[in-house]
Amino acid sequence: GESTEATIQLNSEALGKVQQLADIVLTLEEMSTDEQSSDDEEDQPPA
């Protein structure tokens, strides 16, 4: 019925927002890990 179609539309919109947030989180994690790896390299001894 109409309610089911409305629910599906809301779900699709929510999924789109969730995917956008996930992309932002992944980008922030990549940026933070890049900064950490460049600042403190525990595996390699200081030159």
Helix-strand blueprint:
Elements: H1 2-39
Detailed description of the structure:
Helices cover 81% and strands 0% of the residues. It is built from one helix and no strands.
Distance between the termini: 69 Å
Largest sheet descriptor: none
Order of helices and strands: H
| General shape | rod-shaped
Rg calc: 20 Å
Strand percent estimate = under 5%
Question: What is the count of helical runs?
Answer: 1
Q: Percentage of helical residues?
A: over 70%
- Low-confidence residue ranges: none
Mean pLDDT rating: 85
Give a concise summary:
The chain is mainly α. The chain has one helix at 2-39.
Feature tags:
rod-shaped; mainly alpha; single chain; 47 residues; 1 helix
